[in-house]
Amino acid sequence: MTARRVVAHAGMELRMLLRNGEQLLLAFAIPLGLLVGGMLWGGGWGLDLVRFPASVIAVATWSTAFTALAVATGFERRYGVLERLVATPLTRADLIAGKAVAATALVAVQTLLLTVVALALGWRPVWTPLGALSALVAVLLGIVAFAGLGLLLAGTLKAEVTLALANLIYLAGLAVGGLLVDQPAWLPTAALGTVLRAAATGGVVPAALLVLLGWAAALALIARKAFRWTS
Amino acid sequence: MLDGLTWSAAAGEITALLGPNGAGKTTTIRCITGLLTPDAGTIRVLDGAPGGTDDRVGLMPQSVGAWSAVRPGELLRYLAGLYPRPVPIDDLVEALELGPLLNRPYRRLSGGEQQAVNLAGALIGRPELVLLDEPTAGMDPRARRRTWGVIDTLRADGVSVLLTTHDMAEAARLADRVWIMDAGRVTVSGTVAELTAEASLEDVFLRHTGGAG
Question: What residues in B contact A81, CB-CB < 8 Å?
Fold first, then answer.
């Protein structure tokens, strides 16, 4: 693996992602809309305005590392992009690392943007070093777990099926996956939401972190085994 | 898909792999690039294992092969950055007349224009072996002639070329040696002169593939 090639590929991934209207909607419009709506009007409906922005950061991580990655990779496979790249000096490890760097960079930008907007709208989280560290670890593990699930879909199904299923699972994650509201942290989405919401109030939930670690390891391994480079 | 397939391509020559749809041509190329691994048998590519010589091999895939939103200029710059000694992009742009296309999204190019960009992508790494999977499919006659000229130049420069095509005239015009395959195995091979001694290449093709009759 060479850092130069990984960075070059990550740059290309990011450019392609940001040129896609649907991906921009998922990455920025929906999380920002949720955040602004919740912060402006959610208080009247009993929304906990200290924990809510953390939930939105979990949603943004979910949309980028799972849905956007799955859809983009599904069409790369369908259009023979992966086939072409595998025949260049870019190794498969370089390619996956490039995708990981691109997804992580985008999640970092989303998190920064959401944090700034939330602070401007009155968010006052309780920051502790341990809480912040657990949030960082949870987001990184979440990226691995969600990306593993996304690559599993993209690497085994037709692009159109991946597109439909990824959007359906995205909505299911929002509605019942524990990203926005507390649920038992068995699913990776619920575990990420739980850790981030706890971090916003200065707390740490080691059990949810362990759940995320397990999902990240399992999904990454399964995706690696099942992924097919051609459609 | 492939069944007891045995063939070779000599260094510095143009080798054509012909066969009906489903004969296994694209699968063969995927085995050469290491994308697929055969259940049995041996493949040597430039004296190395498939996939182990990727900086010396250029691939022009049969399907699209590029992001729909990418601009040809940025695609070629990106691909050039992956190789240790890339060909200057301007040289390829001039040879394939890609200038007017460089800033147009790939999805807005015609099939033939996409093929021309794909060919440039296959050549950008200064390969010793070029794999061209139906390189002129969708090209108009002028673009096809231009592509043939580029392939002639590759041969003159000592580059080995493996091409698949359904165009018998193209195979006869370009190839030093032709391998005709059907249902995953070679049915006949020879130089163009040998194969066309008594019949046209198309007749030989029809006689040695499943559509004979």
Answer: 64-67
DSSP B89-158: HHHHHHHTT-GGGTTS-GGGS-HHHHHHHHHHHHHTT--SEEEEESTTTT--HHHHHHHHHHHHHHHHTT
CA distance B63 to chain A (A): 6
Q: Which long-range contacts (CB under 8 A, 24 or more apart) does B107-116 make?
A: B107/B68, B107/B69, B109/B72, B110/B138, B111/B137, B111/B138, B111/B139, B112/B138, B112/B139, B112/B140, B112/B143, B113/B143, B114/B64, B114/B66, B114/B138, B115/B60, B115/B139, B115/B143, B115/B147, B116/B143, B116/B146, B116/B147
Question: Structural domain boundaries of chain A?
Answer: 3-226
* B178, B189 Cβ separation under 8 angstroms: yes
Could you tell me if residue B2 is inside a domain?
Answer: no
Q: Model confidence over A76-129: pLDDT tens digits?
A: 999 989 989 988 998 888 899 999 999 999 999 999 999 999 999 999 999 899
Question: Is residue B145 domain-resident?
Answer: yes
Task: Summarize the confidence of residues A153-179 as an average pLDDT.
Answer: 96
Which has more pLDDT, B212 or B88?
B88
Q: Which residues pair with B130 in a beta bridge?
A: B58, B161
Answer yes or no: is B194 within a domain: yes
ipTM for the predicted complex: 0.86
Q: Which two tokens stand for residue A205?
A: 């939930």
At B46, which CATH number?
A: 3.40.50.300
Domain count, chain B: 1
What is the token pair recorded at B5? 């397939």
Task: Show the domain range for B179.
Answer: 14-65+129-207
Which of the four pLDDT bands, split at 50, 70 and 90, describes residue B7?
confident
Biggest distance spanned by C-alpha atoms of chain B: 50
Alpha carbon distance B22, B40 (integer Å): 20
CA B187 to chain centre: 20
CB contact under 8 A, A84 and B54: no
Which chain B residue has its CA at the smallest distance from A3's CA? B82
Contact between B68 and A79 under an 8 Å Cβ cutoff? The reply is yes
CB contact under 8 A, A20 and B54: no
A63 min Cα distance to partner chain B (Å): 20
pLDDT tens-digit readout, B179-211: 999 988 888 889 999 999 889 999 999 998 985
The residue with greater pLDDT, B138 or A84, is A84
pTM value is 0.88
Inside any domain, residue B116:
no
